[in-house]
Hints:
It is a single chain. By secondary structure, the protein is of the alpha+beta class. It is built from 19 helices and 13 strands. The chain has helices at residues 2-27, 138-146, 152-162, 168-192, 197-217, 219-222, 231-237, 247-257, 260-267, 277-284, 286-294, 302-314, 324-338, 342-355, 368-377, 395-403, 405-414, 430-438, 451-460; strands spanning 43-51, 62-68, 75-81, 87-93, 98-104, 110-114, 119-125, 131-134, 384-389, 417-424, 445-449, 468-472, 478-481. The strands form three sheets. The chain has a five-stranded mixed sheet with strand order 11-10-9-12-13, sandwiched between helices. The protein has a four-stranded mixed sheet with strand order 4-1-7-8. The chain has a four-stranded antiparallel sheet with strand order 3-2-5-6. Strand 12 (468-472) and strand 13 (478-481) form a beta hairpin. The termini are far apart.
Amino acid sequence: MGNNRNTRLMLIVIVVLGMMSCSVKRQQVKVIDADVFFNGGNLTEISGKISNMKKGKYVGGMRWSHYDNVITREGLRRFFEIDSLDRFRNWIYLPSPRIVIMTGNSGNPLPIYLEPGSDLTVTADDMMTDVVFSGKLGRINNELNNAPRFDFPNKWDTILREDSTITPALALKMYDTAEADWLLKLDKYMSEQKLSTVAHKILSSMPSYTKATWIMNNEEWLGLDTVEDYAPLADCMNHDIYSLAQMWPGGLTACVTASRLGSRLASRLPKVNASDYPTSVSLFMRRYEAMARFLGFENLPTLLQLAVARTLCRNDVLDRCRDYNEAVATATKTCDLYITNPSIRNEVMKYIDRRYKRYKWRPDQSSPEGKLLSRIIEPAKGKYVILDMWNYMCYPCLKEIKETRAWRESMREKGDTAVVYITPSSSTTPQQYQKMLDTTLAGDITYHLSDDEFNMISAMFNQVLFPYHVLIGPDGTILEEDYRLDPSIKEKD
């Protein structure tokens, strides 16, 4: 009898310990591996409710999110329409984990942390002052949102305007004084809270990136000159790769590409004549190699490799190439010399392919959005498909649908190309949709999608404006996004 009771007690202990173990495992947040850090590819779901929403000039109000590609600096904006119950739901395509800035009619920014393939729910008031997060990424975002804030950099322009007698030495002292108070609060917060690994990494790197970004934004006014002056920047070079996809180095990398230090060090380098454009570009990038050595690094840290990539993609360097082949040759020569991170190099090459409409990719067939797209284009299987995103409120959409009707009929007779039309239910009512089916869309492959379904497809291709077209090959390969219809195929009025 006693043995049975002891056995039952032991079983209970084992079960409780097992439950505790499962609970701990659920609370732990895995940090993205460095080898796949920049390689996302899935949609992140973001939904929520905004209380006390003031209906403005936009029906139902809007919420905007925006971010940029940390490697190429290509920007993206997504909008979230608020329904009659003040709710919203949408998806964002992310190439890597990052902090996205979400704003709305109030204009107040709300930084939110997102990862590919995850979900986040936001419950907030209209001014974004009372915010609670839930969902897979809820814990991380609550931890980041509740952390002590440092407002000095945001107030700096106002401080300098109000007191023009402030000297660079006094400015640095003022920063350090304000930072010391913030660090005490931040250290206390991090020591008292059982933070997730991700939140701990982000908050640990925040002081360095905040300081480095501030001094680089004010580099010339502060008169930075010595290695000691640039110590905050050097400190950021030592951070692990995880810090580099957050919003701080996005701005910091832009500062580095326009740095006075880079120009100064470049002017000291021996003059070398370039025999061709790819060589001249690679010689220009020596400034980043000089910066690395100035800061005490033999090889280019990831942050400087990002600066090289951004200079290639966003400083008109590749725009000056004569054609696609010269752009590839220019990027290849520079990457061979300066970019050792394969993900950064691959993203630069994909940028060139996107720019010259040569980037081809296959959707993840196991993802919800991939399955949805396959179902939508199934009736046109084996053909070239032009996926057309439209809505009834878009006059250019309606005009284009009317003008291309004769061409679509001829394509149906040939049988090798099909246009598949999709429209969201929120901006095209059932009555409006039926009217189009009875007239200009008669005989076409069409879908009146729910907002959730349309938003997933829209996010998949980073679509914002209407009309928007995607060219898809017979095997399901995405051949061209933001595809333009040839004006010569349009029916004349």
